[in-house]
Amino acid sequence: MRICIVAEHASTRFGGEAILPVHYFRLLRSRGVECWMVVHARTQSEVMEMFPNEIDRILFVPDRWIQKLLFYLSRFLPRRLSEATLGLLNQLITQFCQRAIVRGLIRDRRIDVIHQPIPVAPRFPSVLFGLGAPVVIGPLNGGMDYPPAFRRSESWMTRVALVIARLFANVGNTLLPGKKYASVVLVANERTRRSLPSGIRGRVVELVENGIDVGIWQSAQGTSVNAVPRFVFIGRLMDWKAVDVAIRALANVPSAELDIIGDGPMLNAWQSLAAELGLKDRVHFSGWLTQSECANRLLNSIALVLPSLYECGGAVVLEAMAMGKPVIATRWGGPADYLDSSCGVFVEPESYAGLVAGFAEAMRRLLDSPSLARSMGAAGRVRAVRDFDWQHKVDKMIGIYRSVAENLDVPRKLKTTSISNATASETN
User: Which fold has domain 2-211+389-427?
Assistant: First the structure.
């Protein structure tokens, strides 16, 4: 088969969904699948560094002046409002440019299937239709709001704008009906399925959004080598990640430290909070680290903490599970798709004070019972490898590509282990 992956970005450094096309392209090419990728030039240097032998298979959309202007203006708006307005417009410009490139690939390379893995937002319009090749979109993951107790944390302007944007989502998807005309639309969960625009004509199939590379995220052997027990947060430092909850919780756990890995607009505010609480010596801001470096930090930790209030996915949860580490997470959104009580501790987002107290209690619980932390970690490792290995996920995607290319039926719900490596090899 000949597959064309179309994505806004492909990056291991951007965080979030940008890593998804990297995994698809990497694993498909490792199996000898004829595959091309079309992405924006913002990540060109990184992509060329990752795939030096595949440059002839990767096409880049140049960064235009209008996109640079939109990106600059977006910095002055609240994040969710920016994404729903200027961010939407910026990505649509990229998609229209990609549309012309993909049309040329279909003509010159006889592409069998187009796969658009991102953006994962279920209401985001797609312009990939009417190109002469079937389209697979997703897995999508979204349809979320903040927990009820935290919805007032956003400005009234943002809340009103988001309501208006959602009301016009069907109009946008009617004018740009890529999702409606796609052969298969993949959704990560039922919540996302309910958020799809109306009028979807193709099959809607459930498939988990994220996965793990077990070659990087290896199960921890032995115990932590840190002199002081340490918890770890990994992610972009955005307001909705609520790292302040973990920092305040640590103030009530005097025997531990917190390693915050990542960068973002909340860095200075959270550094100031740590200093204000007298925690500068126990809260460590490590900045952006590679996946291998993150794996090493997890190896030498007690658990991952993820107090996010708006986490649709949460690949970092799977990474901690693969490392044999328990996870303390807010019971909201994506983490609930991956964790259960055997491998994690959920904290209910009923109030800010309650969330802080819940994280502090969970930290103390794992510190006081190393055997519990080990047993949770072991259970998480089994679950992660069994259900979320990227190799199994690509098995499944190859089966979907084949079904679409041959116009076969696709099951509505797929387990990551349901398609064997042998089937994938036959498909190649």
Answer: Rossmann fold (3.40.50)
